[in-house]
Structure formats: C-alpha cells, structure tokens
Amino acid sequence: MNPRRATRALAVLATAPLAVIGLGTGVAHAHGTMGSPASRIAACHAEGPENPQSQACKDLVAANGSQALYDWNGVRDGEADSNHRQNIPDGQLCSGGDPAFSGLDKPGNWAATNLATSGDFAWEYTVTAPHKGYIELYVTKDGYDPDQALKWSDLEEEPFHRVDDPQPVAGTYDLTGPLPQGKSGRHVIYVIWQRTDSPEAFYSCSDVDFGGTGQGLPTITPVGGMDPGDEHAEHGGQAGEGTGGTTPEPVGPPAEEKETNDGSGTTDGGQASPESSASPEAPAGDSQPPPVDSQGTHDGHNAAHNGEQLPVTGSTITGLFLSALVAMLGGAGLAWYARRRRAAGAHRAA
Fold it and tell me: What number does CATH give the domain 31-314?
C-alpha cells in the first residue's frame, strides 16, 4: 500500500469512532410538543402507545406504528429555517411533512381541550431539550372543516400569540398569553417552534373546543428526572429515538404553579384553564391514561393540579452502542493493516 494512502486509511479508522460518538450525542433527545392544550400526539401517548383507546389514536398507530407515540416529541423538519409554508405541503401540517407521523394528518374525532372564548390562557409547551428560538400559535379560520386534512389556507394569516426565547421551568415553556378572539366551537391550534440556533423546527396540532362544556383533555407534562435511556431499553431498543412501554409514576407540576379552579373555567390567577374533571374510578395521581368517551373527549384530572406525564424520549444508548461497534471495526482494521505490513516485510526479507 502507498504510504500516503496508508496514512489516510489509518486516520479514517482512528477518527470514525469519534464521529459516531458525536452523532450519537446529537440525537440523544428529541425536543417537544404542545402540552396544554394537548397536541394530538401527546393525547394519544397518554392513552397508551401500545393500546390506545380512541379511534383517532388507533388509526394513528395503524398508520405509523406505536413507535410514533414513543417519539412524541420528534414531529419536526430539520431543514425548516422558517420556510414552513414552502416545506410542508397542504394536508401534512400536523405531521410536519414527516411520513413517520402521517397518521396525525388524518381527519378524525380527535379528543379536544375545552377553552374559554376570551381572556388569557396558560399555554404550555412540553420540552425535553430547550433551544433558543420562537414559538408561534395559530388558530384555524371560522368555517374550518375538521373533516378535511389541515391546509395552510385553513389558518389565520398571522399568529395570535408569539413568544421569543422562552425559558423552561420543570420541563415546560410557560407561554401564558391571550386566547384568540371571536372563536367558538371546534378549531385547531397549530404551533410552530422554530429554533434560531439551527434550521430545525417542531410542529403540533391541538384540537380545541372554544366554549365547550364537555370534559376536556388534561395538561400533558414531562416526567422529571427520568433517564432518557431507561424507557428506550425497556421498549426493546427500536430504531429511532423511541422510549419504553411502561407508564411512569406521575410527577405533579411545581407547587408554585398549582392553582385552584372554581369550575368556572378560570384559575384563581384569572387565567382560563382547560375544562376537565377527575374520573370517579381514578384517584388523583392515577398513572393510567384518561378514558375516552364516544365524543372524542377525555375524562382527566384537573389540568391545573394533576397533568398526564410524557416520558423524556431519546437515548444515548444507541449512540454508545454504535460507537463501540465502530471502535471494534476500527481496531480490526488496524490489526489487519498491521498484519499486512508484517507479511509484506517478511516477503521482502525473503
């Protein structure tokens, strides 16, 4: 072998494990989804990834498998760079144009969160890896047809609320701000989280009912302190940034965030809250997902007190495994090269 080529080969073999380690750490976490009002994927995960209860969530799993629900915080476009309308085709807004989540785009009787028709609301974004950027909230226009896949033309032209560089508290971005004005009945809240330190953006659809009086979805909050690798290992280490199938013990929101609700749809802080009530069969803090009725709404705990929890997904295990594999291959390559050199030397000596 030419000495120069040999040097290049050795350099590649020596640095390959480092490159894979960098790749593994780069994908260790997905990033987030809307927690209140709960996004479609968050609500379906709360029902149980392996055995969802509502027809809409069953259809999602039928289309994309349960892995889509384990990857609840990965509905994204890595090359968005604020070109959302150009990159995502009509009818694919809820999946962010990612075929791995195409079931989110299918019209159906998605469970909805009840919202007031005016005032402020404690919008919450569940985040597993914070980044600099902005979050914009859009609402569908009057006359929106929920029996059709969401199109860009279904949304109001401008966001009704935007927050720049929110700071995470206990795994949540607090986006408290105004409700869209003049809305009633069923709508979709479309949320875009665009990073400013990367072209990557995240998308979610939350089904809501303005002025609704039925039982609504609970807030979806992350499980604090969970090692992202634990659930991934329990789920069998499937490809992607998946997590396990066990339901974690609930972790309530911080004490300073808890507020009382008098049943009028507002908290004692004067902010509207999603309407929900505790199931008589499930005591507060029950880790089972809320049951779904025929109207596509969930019986849930009071969102201001007991939120459903989503596990923090993504794992360093896959990256470390690949790193070890490449390291072994690199070592084997170096050993092979050394043997070739020795054999060549022996041949020349003879």
Answer: 2.70.50.50
